[in-house]
Amino acid sequence: MNIKPTVLDFAILGLIQDNSLSGYAIRKMFEETALGSYSSSPGTIYPALKRLQKGGLVEKISQIDSAKSSFKITQQGLLILKSWFLKPIEKVDVEKKINELLLRFGFMESLIDKQQRIHFLISFQEELIKYISELETYYKSEGFKMPLHGKLAFQYGIESNKTTLKWCKKSILQLT
């Protein structure tokens, strides 16, 4: 079966890429970390695991001497995860999917070589520079028309993107 993984699916694959985990352990990771923004509900985690299993991206492994089982990523799952890591960064990713980009980066270390990780950050940086420039240009031409709270929110958007850009630059330096 060919499935199109969701961001939740990729987060699960990222969690189990190095070690198999029980469904409960996966759910706890989502509950207790920032991954919870993708969902921590048993009503989404367990169906996602079933979908990944059905799609051949994970396999369920029974624990010896226990009724418990865990989930392990398959070779196909690793390939799909790696291709997600290597997917080119586009303008829409920087505009609307920063958290997904950070999720990709956060999980890529063991599957992607250092040069590819640096390339990812450089691409991220380049798209951010273009996007910040567009935001600043728009603000200069239209900001005077905005109500005060609109201006402040827009300024927050510019500043938060500048902070992400600063992080990209520091991360590149740490990797080189």
Automatic annotation (TrEMBL):
It holds the Pfam family PadR. One of its GO terms (molecular function) is DNA binding. Keywords: DNA-binding. Gene3D superfamilies: Winged helix-like DNA-binding domain superfamily/Winged helix DNA-binding domain (1.10.10.10). Transmembrane segments: none annotated. Residues 12-77 form the Transcription regulator PadR N-terminal domain. It comes from the Bacteria. The keyword DNA-binding applies. InterPro entries: Tscrpt_reg_PadR_N, WH-like_DNA-bd_sf, WH_DNA-bd_sf. The keyword DNA-binding applies. This is DNA-binding PadR family transcriptional regulator. It comes from Lutibacter oceani.
